[in-house]
Amino acid sequence: MNQENYYALCVCILSERIPDEAFQVMQILPTPRKLKDADISEILRFKKCLTWKQVGELYGVSDHAIQKRVSRSIKKAT
Description:
It is a single chain. This protein is an all-alpha fold. Helices cover 69% and strands 0% of the residues. It folds into two domains: 1-30; 37-77. α1 (3-15) crosses α2. The longest helix has 15 residues, at 63-77. It is elongated and about 45 Å long.
């Protein structure tokens, strides 16, 4: 565990915040997680009835970022 995580834990304990709020207070952005094949298929299912913006919000990224990730994953697979 790195130092920032310990600081965030202290913020959580001392201020009764959840971890996401602690990282926001500390102005630390979470690193985006890598999308797995199951994520890509789920995103494509969501895309049938949602906009890219809405799908991006579900994953905590912008519409452009989610589009780019999906297109890169599809290109990698072929």
